[in-house]
Amino acid sequence: MNKVAFVTVASFLTQRKIQLQSAGDSQHIYYKLKSREEHLADALQNEYDVIIVGGGATGAGVSLACANRGLKSIVLESKDYASGASSKSTKLVHGGVRYMQQVFQLSEKNRMEKWELVAESLRERSNFLSMCSYLTQDFPTLIPCTNLFDLGYYYFGSLIYHCVYLYYQTGGHTFKPPRIVGKEEIQQHFKYAKCNYGVIYYDGQFNDARMVQELLVTSSLKGQNMANYVEVKGLLKNEQNKIVGVQAFDKIGQKQFQIKGKCVVNATGGWADNLRLMDDPTVSKRIVSVAGSHLTMPQKYGSRHWGYLIPKTNDGRVLYMVPWQGNMIMGTTERKLENPTHDPTVSHEEYMWLLKSFCDEFTVDASEAARDVKSKWCGVRPLVYSSNALSTKEVSRTHEIEVSKSGLISVMGGKWTIFRLMGEQTVDKVQELIGNKQKRIENLPKLVGDWTQFDHRKEIQIMMKMFDLPQSYAAYFLTTYGDRAYDVLKLIYENPENKESLHPQFPHTVGEVLYQIRYEQARKPEDILFRRTRLGFLDQNAIFTVYEKVFQIMAKELKWSDKFQQQFLKENFEYIRKLEF
Ligand SMILES: Cc1cc2nc3c(=O)[nH]c(=O)nc-3n(C[C@H](O)[C@H](O)[C@H](O)COP(=O)(O)OP(=O)(O)OC[C@H]3O[C@@H](n4cnc5c(N)ncnc54)[C@H](O)[C@@H]3O)c2cc1C
């Protein structure tokens, strides 16, 4: 990086800052973010209104709702943010067309519950995309049809789905109505598709782990605290048996400490029963953990813009194929887990089922498709148990908020799409408990990268020119960080070392990793490889290429001793290998 370029970048940033300041938006560039250590230092001094246990979609949503109602909260995450289900989803912001289908099946027992689920999710789908335009987009999904009866059935089903959305629409984002498409158009998108016609309907998609990060950064800028690698090991109670805090363990600093709070929210997803039992060992379990697996395939098997939904595979299950970050992801399976581990692996059976269902639908060679699999991953879906459930399909897909006698607020079940609603409803319960009357804010809260409401296309052009970036790289920074991209690029351009690329096929550089360590609390290589960047989900080989470099950057930045490095390198590499990537 030469001096001239550096001066140009610096002057551009100053100019931009002046522009934003003159528009009354002084804080929109150079966001001042706290480090993990600063958050922990706050935790030792503060007494919180709310202690949120779990740093996935649910915990992050509760944190944002607290921020917007003037409550002081801290999120404690025992591993990394979004390392549970929240980074391993299908990445859909959706109402759930399959539940819509169930509403009209006479054999379905809970048709009213399914209707409410779809209506609620469709309302939240618009809100989700409006809150965070840079990390989300809508996209058409094809339902392939083999006969005219199916075509009519899925078209009218999709039309009702669209009408429900129109009726309940609250957010600013609008979705197009469904339409019928023929073979020619289908072949332009899916050259291996066998079907002759089908129905297109619209849903949204997003970058799940990055969304948790953006939610937490937004909350942090609004005064909330958060720390990853802090496990809640116990609940502190007063003489009246009411919860007054938690016993926590900092796995990085290897320190045990107490945090005081007026109430504790249990947002631990598939592990919610652990905290419920910690509070009261006599309660019955409510969570059914269901594993869901995905494969990542090269773009050539799918479309750059369209998704593909098989509503009924050979064994009656639903299968999604979704374009994501220049690849195609396909999933998901459902396998009940008795004792959910944090990182379940894709079973051989699931792997074979996914490949077989894919090959049944497209004219592709099965062994070539198997060779082309780029990555696979598995997540734990936390469903709420209903006692007469016989299979995972009968377990409730809605969410529930339970308040225990001692004041533990457990928010269970639900899905990514409705995280905002779950957060708001949980904070309603918090307020009842602690006697706070602050109302919900009326306008939808925007996430930090959207605060300046920029024009995406124009901004990409500016970035390309200013930083001499190819279009795809400029688009990457913008669709990952929103207008925070300028802060990341500033660090990358601060010195020539920071510009060094990690991998020729990806836009990641040393400077970006430094940003993620300093301002996004990345503390282990897998935090960078799987969640701050999405390399591990996109290309399993790439992570082995960049692992050592990422390790070295972290060792230098975090000042790891030689002894620690030797021990950690071995343990950590083993851990990553175990993930089967
Ligand atoms: C395969 C799959 C596909 C999905 N696809 C979609 C989709 O396309 N769209 C959609 O809307 N939803 C989807 N979902 C659902 C969605 O991903 C989940 O509902 C959501 O991510 C759950 O978030 P959570 O925060 O409740 O749980 P998690 O993300 O699992 O977070 C819980 C966190 O709590 C932490 N924790 C546990 N115990 C402790 C403790 N003692 N102390 C501190 N921290 C603790 C864990 O480490 C974990 O990070 C999918 C789920 C799966 C599994």
Automatic annotation (TrEMBL):
GO terms for molecular function: glycerol-3-phosphate dehydrogenase (quinone) activity. Its EC number is 1.1.5.3. It holds the Pfam family DAO_C. Residues 49-416 form the FAD dependent oxidoreductase domain. Its cofactor is FAD. Residues 457-563 form the Alpha-glycerophosphate oxidase C-terminal domain. GO terms for biological process: glycerol-3-phosphate metabolic process. One of its GO terms (cellular component) is mitochondrion. Keywords: FAD, Flavoprotein, Oxidoreductase. The keyword Aminoacyl-tRNA synthetase does not apply. It comes from the Eukaryota. InterPro entries: DAO_C, FAD-dep_OxRdtase, G3P_DH_FAD-dep. PANTHER family: GLYCEROL-3-PHOSPHATE DEHYDROGENASE, GLYCEROL-3-PHOSPHATE DEHYDROGENASE, MITOCHONDRIAL. This is glycerol-3-phosphate dehydrogenase. It comes from Paramecium pentaurelia.
